[in-house]
Each structure stands twice: as C-alpha cells, then as structure tokens.
Amino acid sequence: MTHKTAKHPSRRSALQLGGVALLLGVQHIARGATIVAVRVWPSKDYTRLTIESDGEIKARQFFVAEPPRLAVDIEGIDLIPALRELVAKVRSDDPNISGIRVGQNAPGVVRLVIDLKQPMLPQVFTLPPIAAYQYRLVFDLYPAQPPDPLEALIAERLAGNPPGASPADGAGHDPIGDLIAQQAGKPASGAAAGSGRPADNKPAGAAKAAPELTATAKGRSEGKADRLVIVALDPGHGGEDSGAVGPGGTREKDVVLQIAHRLRDRINQQPNMRAYLTRDADFFVPLHMRVQKARRVQADLFVSIHADAFFTARPQGASVFALSEKGASSSAARWIADKENSADLVGGINVKAKDVQVQKALLDMSTTAQINDSLKLGSAMLGEIGNVGKLHKPRVEQAGFAVLKAPDIPSVLVETAFISNPDEEARLRSDDYQIQLADALMRGITRYFAKNPPLARNRAL
C-alpha cells in the first residue's frame, strides 16, 4: 500500500510539470527531439516550408489532386505550439498555399494538411545538419504548370513599352536597338521609329512563338522591330541560405537583391531590353536552376551578384569572375568559388530529384567561346566598377563557379565588396553606393554590347 501511495504523487507531479512546460512554450517532442524553427518561403516559382529539429524526423506524404492538397504524416512527434506556428506563417498572398491544417492523427504522429491554390508537384525530403542548421524536413511545392518566363518578359515588353517608345527617363535614342540593327544588317531604330508596332507583332502571337526561337531571323523582313535583349540577373543566395553575414548583421542575400533590383530598373529603361531575375524575392534557388532559368529565357548575358567575405576584416574591394576551363587563376579565386558552390548544401536541394544529375551534366558543357566572351564582359564591368570603389584585383579572375557554366551565355560573377569588412559593409547598406554600383554595372553592360552586339535571333518584341 505504501509503495502504491508513493508512486501516485510522482506520476501526478510529472503530468503537472509537463503541462506547465507545454503552456510555457517548451517545444518538446516525444522520443527526444525538439522543433527548433518553422519557416515558410513563398515565391511565384515555388513555396518552401521547413521544419527544423535537433533530431531527425520522418514523414510520409499523400497528394490529393481534387481539391489540390498535400497531407503529410510526421512520425515520432506530438502536436506542440511550434507546429501551430506554421499555420500562422502562411501569408494570404502566397501564390501556392491557401492554408495549413495541423492535428494529432495518432499517438506520436502529427498530420499536416497543406491546402493548395493550384495543382502542384510536391517534393518532400530531409537535410542533414550543416552550417547553422540542424536537421530539416523540407516541403518544396512547385506549380504543375509554371508560367513561361520568356513569354512573360515579351508580354510585359509589348504591354508596357511598345517598340519605338522612349525609355522611362525620356531619352528618345535607342543605343541597344542600334547595335542589334547593325549586327542584323537592318536600318537603325531611328529609321523605323515612326512606324509603330508591326501588324504581325501581336502580344499573343509573340508569346506563342517565344519557345520556338531560333538563331535565324526566320520570316522577318527589313525594317521590322528589333528583338528583345535579355540580361539575366542572379542575386546570390536567398531563403534558407543567407550567404555571408557582416559584422553588423547585414546579410549578403538582402543587399545583393537590392542591388539587382536597382540594376533591373536601369536595364528596363533601355528600349528593347529587359532584365530577368533568377529570384526577385527572398527564396532559395539551386545553382543549376539559376543557369537553367537564364537559358530558358535565352538570356544574352548572365550577371551573378554577390558580396564577398573572408575570415578577417582586412580584405576589401570588388572583384569580377569568369569561368575557368583549366582551374582557378589564384588560390583566392579557388577559395571563393568553393564557397559559392557550397550554396546548395546550405540552401538545401533535393538530391533525389530526377533532373538534378541531368542539370549538373549540362553545367559541364561550357565552351571556350563562352569563356572568352565572359572575360570581355567581366573586363568591361571591372573597368566601370573601379570608377566607383576599390578593386580587390585589377583583372578578371577565373575559377570553376557552377553558376557560370551556361554553355551559350556570357556569364560573370560580381563580388560587389567584402561584407566582412565593416567599412565596406556600411557602403553596401547605403543607397548611394548601391546606386553608384548599379550605374557602373549598367555602363559595363553597355560597353560590352558596343563592342559585341547581340546576335540576331527571331525573338519578337
């Protein structure tokens, strides 16, 4: 009797203590793991949900097509406040998720139901601990029918800035159009400025024709509108991958996105020219997808924007890099390339995805001609950047950057400054420096095209 009486209070005390701990928000999972954080990264491309824990957790998913929803049973956990936070983190303007429901499906099993706004191709996978992250359970929700980015660029060009129209700053001359016209052997843009949009250049027709573009100007007659020149801008890192963090807490992913937006605005002010961003918000894009996106819009140039970091605060200055066929041009270039190429590990890719190996194989198809053009682009940019700030190296460096391996697009990676240097971190955060840098990059692009006009293609405006 005494033995039973002694046991009872102990059990009751344990239950009371557990209840108090739950009310205080202690995020304890049965079987010894703890939810560290829950995150949602929405974008037009896809939406990512992440559940981070200090121990590995397993999940089984069930996709229901009508209405579209993803049900996931997370094993080895009980319903706790941390998981309910995931519900509140979904924004009303998320392009892919309409809501999340969570409940205790069985002892030790929590069911997560993600209600979707459109048919999706979900990927659910786990990531081992790396850098600042512990174990991650990741849900990547891709639209089953993603929009065609090239069609979107052409439609935007047709709707917002028809051929012959002046750029946003009011200048009437079209230097890029002139360069294209010279390359194609056609009259310069000014000669046809009064003719307006060609009768056969309707938005719908242009959008449908876009995926079938060829290098030959098939079916075009003299004097018709010049094609759209596309510059792919690639703000480094994003989402789960913050990139380098300065001593003052500035995150690389934030400042490079701001610089890319400023450069985009300058490019879009040029007639017959459009910028395409591999990411236009805070979400992660795998390295091979950045290259694939640029190729999908048939970009004429690819500019990846970063902010360098080192172990100490001393290094300073901007750098420009191109791809190398034979190895890095310096130990520093090799070190930076290795660091940037590790972004996939931090940002988190599904290594079981079917297309990853195919895309990585494509990344090895770089050509000597592409590298030579990239060096010309890099040299033009480096010369202009040197007018607004210090250079870390006076020449274009080379190394095996995965993001520069588009075989048919001149590609450079710009390290805008050392974010690990307190003085340069402050400059990166300033509007003045970002404006000067965007202006310099724009001048570098213009200089490159002045000597290397874009090739004629059957890309309608």
Automatic annotation (TrEMBL):
PANTHER family: N-ACETYLMURAMOYL-L-ALANINE AMIDASE, N-ACETYLMURAMOYL-L-ALANINE AMIDASE AMIC. Its EC number is 3.5.1.28. Residues 184-221 are annotated as: Disordered. It catalyses: Hydrolyzes the link between N-acetylmuramoyl residues and L-amino acid residues in certain cell-wall glycopeptides. It comes from Polaromonas jejuensis. Pfam families: Amidase_3, AMIN. Residues 184-218 have a biased composition (Low complexity). It is an enzyme of class 3 (hydrolase). Residues 291-446 form the MurNAc-LAA domain. InterPro entries: AMIN_dom (IPR021731), MurNAc-LAA_cat (IPR002508), N-acetylmuramoyl_amidase_3 (IPR050695). GO terms for molecular function: N-acetylmuramoyl-L-alanine amidase activity. This is N-acetylmuramoyl-L-alanine amidase. Keywords: Hydrolase.
